[in-house]
Amino acid sequence: MNQPDRDSLAAPGPLLLEPDAVLLPEGPADGWAVVIGDGRFETVGPAHELKRTHPHLTPVRLPGHLLMPGFVDAHHHLTQSFGAALAFGEPSEIFRRVWVPLEGALDEEAAYTAAKLAALEALRGGFTTVTDAGTRADVDVDVVASAARDAGIRCVLGLVCNDAEGEADQPAVLEKAEKHLARYAGDPLVHASLAVSIPEAATEGTLRATARLAAEAGAVVQIHVNEHLAGVERSLVRHGLRPLEHLHRIGALGPQLLAAHATLLTPHELTLLADTGTAVSYNPVASAWKGNAVAPAVAMAERGIRFGLGTDGTRGDGFRLAEAAEFAQRLAYGIGIGDSSCGAGWTWLEHAHRGGADAVGLGARTGTIAQGMAADFLLVDVDTPELALSWDLPWELVRRGNRDQITAVFVAGRLRLWQGAPTDWDGPALVRRAAELARAAVGRADVSRVHPTSTAARALHQAREWSTPQ
Ligand SMILES: [Zn+2]
Prior knowledge:
8-stranded parallel β-sheet, about 475 residues, globular
């Protein structure tokens, strides 16, 4: 309800921002302020101190607002944004029938536009970082980097390194991987990463080599693992080991691995994750929409397993993702054992930003409001009917927070989004172009769906009802 002054926020820094509170890892700090300059937090501390030590700066008052870290999406497919609802109601492993054909139908303009559309949705949902698991569109991955940069979002950019099934040969794949890891050094927004779609998509030598290359470069390798029963059983038949056990045997587990989904974990696999420092992207909405299980995230938190939260391209909404993270744990684990705390709220908020940044290899750069960190943050209006009578703000943000409360999104110290709209590029024009290109791409793609649309399903349901013998 309180609107800060947009022009003051859009001014080139340094800026002294004085919200009602700053969300620190320890909790909300009332009466704190931040100074941002050169894309980073120069200082974070009590407002009266910062005003005394920075007398040359005019404080920008942000009444009714909380300054909190931007959300980190630990698992996304930016070039799949043209067809989110194409997967609704579909059985698991939709990548074979929907995503690979759709991405294959994208030319350069379509891939750029799809990625920029996904970035816009993410920014509107409060994400300041998205992690792309590697496009399968037949374009230079730099197209996705440009889209993220032009949209103004931080991006961990995966390069697909699949070399099994004759897709490519190993030396060529590894040469490209090395070039990719060097290509974005020093880039303020784009951070290189490697990706293997699923463990059997790469040879054992390549799985080992990508792990080594990424570890040396301080980057992550993204692999979808233990997501669906079919995948776990394929691995058991082929190797006599479950996917995570197989990756462990060949030496591909470690802090450089970002294991996407990891929903189907045995106690032994939890131990492997904990012992090797491997990170996980917990994707609760993907579990609800197309999964076989929910990753045991409360157990992972208890055992110190590193994890972030990912959308998997389902919907770019940080508050709903944090809420889904809690909700899924309650229904899948908490209810049955009477765990009414189930992470105590803070777990889901923290893993939505700080834990996510750590999991995607950016823990020293983003995810926390602290001196020296990138100024990736949100100004959230907490003076709303839903949140003004606050008793426990972190938990309230998880359960009652909503993206319409996000007044401003900053990435690398710059105002990128104001009240849901980009500040320095034409959002509506991008959406119009995306709608045109999406129709054409889906028309070209050999997408095979099992489930009818909602309206067609209703008609079938009605027809069944009417044909029931009386
Ligand atoms: Zn995925």
